[in-house]
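Help! Submission page says 'invalid entity' but I think these are all valid:
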Amino acid sequence: MSPAGALVLLHLLGAGLLAAWPARAALLNLLLCGAALVPAALLLSAPGGEGWLRADALNAPFVMLSAIVGFGTALFSLEDVRGEGFDGRRLRSYHAAFQGFLAANHVALLSDNLGILWVAIEAGTLASVVMVGVHRTPAAIEAAWKFFVLCGFGIALALFGIIVLALAGAPHLPGGEARLSAAALREVAARMDPALLNLAFVFLLVGFGTKAGLVPLHSWLPDAHAEGPTPIAAVLSGLLLNAAMLAILRGQGIVAANGEALSPGGFLLAMGLASLLLAGVTLWRRRDAKRLLGWSSIEHMGLAAIAFGLGGPAGNAAGLLHLWGHALLKSAAFFAIGRAARLKGDQRMDAIGGLARSHPPLGWGLVLAMAGLAGLPPFSLFVSEWWLAGAAARTAPWVLALLLPGLLVAGLALLHAMQRLCLGPPTPDAAPGPAGLSALLPLWTNLLLALLIALALPAPLAALLREGAGLLP
Amino acid sequence: MGLGEIGYDVAHLLGGAMLLVSFVLLAQRRLEAVTGALALQGVLLALAAAWQGHVQGAGQLLLTAGIALAAKGLGIPLVLRRMAAALPPAQRADAPGPLAPVMLGAAGLVALAFLVAVPATRGAPVLARVDIAIALAILLLGALMMATRRGALAQVAGLLTMENGLILAAVGVAGMPLVVELSTAGLVLVVAVIAGVFARQLGERFGAQDTALLDRHRGERR
C-alpha cells in the first residue's frame, strides 16, 4: 500500500476504534497521530503515487505539516480535554471526529479527483461541526449552526463549479473518472471552452473560498474558532484552511492553463486584499482572545490569496511558505492561548494578562508566536511577507499601496494584543497550576519549526517549495 | 437535438417544473406547505434523473433517481413535516419577508442564471445547456431562500433546494462520473443538517437545564 493510502486508512481506522472504545481515548488519539507522522514523512521524502491519491511537490509538504500540527494538537488535547469535563459519550464522539477530520483533510489534500476532493471537504465539515458544537452552550450551538449553514452553502457552490468543469472537459477526455481528474483536466484545459472555465472558476472560488475564510464569506470562522474547544481551533486554522486554499489553487491551475479564459489571479487578489484590510481593522476591536486569533487567520489566508493572485514563481513560493508558517505559528498561538484560558478560567482578553511573568515558558512562547503572526523576524511569516512584497513590487506595484498599510495595521493590532496578554501585571488564576508539558512541547516545537524554515530551510524542502511553486500558474 | 424533440422537451419540462416549485417554496409561509413543495421537487428531480438516464443510456442515473425519490421525494419531507408539527404553533409559519421584493429578486436571479449560463455553455451539448441554466437558477433560488428565511427548517429547505439544483446539473452532463457518489454525499450533508436542527430543537426545549449543568462542569468560561 502506498504511504498516502496508509495515512488515510490509519486515521479512518482510528476514528472507528475511538468511536467504539472510549477508554484512554486521548492517549490512543495521540498514538494514532504519532504513527501518522511516519507515512507523512515517507510521502514528503518521495512524493508520488497514482490513482486518486497523488502526492506531489505541492501537497506533500502540507500533508507533513498536517501530521505535525495534528500530532501537536493531540498532545495538547491530552491535558486540555480533561478540563472540559466531557462524559464518556461526548469524549468518544469528540476523539472519533478528530480522527475522522484528519482522514478527510488528508484525502482533500492528496486527492487528484475533484469529486473525491469535494466529498472529503464535505466530510471534514461534518466532522468539524461535531467538534465545534461539542460544548452545547447556546453560543457553541449557534457557532456550529453558522458553520454548517455557511459551509453547506459554500460547498454546494463549489460542487456546481466542479460539475461545470466536468462539462467543459467532457469533449476532450475519455469517459469515466478521468473527467474529474485535476491533472487530466489541466492537460486539456487549453482546448476547453473558456466561457465554461470562467463560470466554473467563479463558483469554485466562492465555494472553496468560504471554507478558506476569505472575505466576504468569512463570518463562520471567528465564531467556530472561539466557541469550539481549543484543539479544534488549532486544526481548523492549521489544516482545514490550507486544504480549502489548495482546492482553490487546483481550480486556478486548470483555468489558468487556458489562455483565453479570464485570468483567475485578479479574483484571488481582490478577495485577498479585502480579507487583509477587513481583518486588519477588525483585529483592533477584539475582546475574546480566540476570536482575535480567528480574525488573524482571515488576515493570513488573505495574504496567501494575494500571493497566489500575483502568481509567478516568486508569488507562489511566497504564498506556499506563508501557508506553512501560518499553520505552525497559529496552532502554536492557540496552544498557548488555550492553556492560558484554562488557567485563568476565561478566554476574554481582559481576564488574561501578564502571562510572561506568571508563567514564563508559556507567556514567552505566546509572545514569540504572536510576534511571528504579526510578521516580525526571525519567523517564517516575515520571510514570506517580504517575498510577497517583493513579488508585488515587481509585477503589480499598486498592490503595495494596500498591502503595506494592511500588514502594518494588522501587525500592530496583534502586537498590541500580545502586550495586553503577556506583559504587564498578571491577572489572578482561576485554576492555579503549571503550564504543563502537553501545552509547552507543541508550542515550542512549532515555534522552532517556524524559525527553522525561516532561517535554514533544508535544501530538499527548498527544492520542494520551488517545484511546488512551479506547479502553480 | 432541439425543441420539438421528445428527449429535449421532457428534460426541459421537468427542469422548468422544478424551477417553478422553487418559486412556490420561496413564497410559502407555512412550514407544512414548504415540506409538500419539497416533496414535489424531489419527485420531479427523480423523474428528471431517470429521464436523463434513459436518454443518455446511463444506467447508474436510474440509481440516482431512485435515491432522490426515496430520500427527497419521501423520506426527508416526511421527517421535516414531523419536526415542523412538533414546533410550537407560533413557529410553524415562517414569514418570507415582504413578498414582492423577494419575488423580484428571484426573477432577477433566474434572469442572471440564464444570462450567465446560456452564453457560457455555447459549446456544450444542447441537452446539457438547458439543464445547466435551469440548475443554476434553482441553485441561486435555494441560496436566496437560505438568505431570506430565519427559521432553521426553512433554511434546511433552502439547502435541500440547492442540492436538488446540483443534482439536476450533474445528471445533465453526459458521462459525468461519480454522480451517484456525489448525490449520496450531498444527501448525507442534508441529513446531517437535519439531525443538527433536531438536536437544536431538543436543546431549546431542555435548554435551560442543560447549559446550567454544563457550566458547573466547565467552570466559568464567560
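Support: the input was valid. A stray whitespace character was the problem, and the output above is from the cleaned input. The two ends of chain B are 64 Å apart (CA to CA).
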